[in-house]
Specification:
about 130 residues, 7-stranded mixed β-sheet, mainly beta
Length: about 130
């Protein structure tokens, strides 16, 4: 965990799940997250979630922005920007305000975009 100053002089926490680390369960954070290991569960962050090239995540994610370069099999709820990098392999559902998918990214699932304001939460499939 590392504390950084944002543009307003406030501290913002950055968390790292390193390669070789496996986490099973739920995670909540007021800061940013970088995942280079494996996470299976629900991740809620008020900041940005980055899934690095070696990172893998399964479950559900809620965050302000998401930047995915690794593997994700998730239900993703993002209040601002979602980026699927060229090396990403995404399977699941996305609810986001904005999305960028680079050439080479693999995407299988659904995407719902909201024009303004908070996005509606994903509804469970029945």
């Amino acid at each position: 965990m590392k504390k950084m100053k944002n543009g307003n002089g406030e501290s913002q926490t950055r968390n790292l799940i390193s390669q070789g680390t496996r986490i099973q369960g739920d995670i909540e954070s007021a800061g940013d997250f970088r995942i280079e290991g494996f996470v299976n569960g629900t991740v809620k962050a008020k900041g940005k979630i980055v899934v690095g090239e070696s990172g893998q995540i399964e479950g559900q994610v809620q965050c302000q922005s998401a930047d995915i370069s690794g593997r994700a099999k998730i239900k993703l709820e993002v209040t601002d920007l979602t980026i699927l990098r060229a090396t990403s392999k995404f399977s699941g559902d996305i609810v986001t305000k904005k999305i960028s998918i680079e050439p080479g990214a693999l995407f299988s699932g659904t995407c719902q975009m909201a024009a303004e304001g908070p996005v509606s939460p994903l509804k469970p499939k029945t």
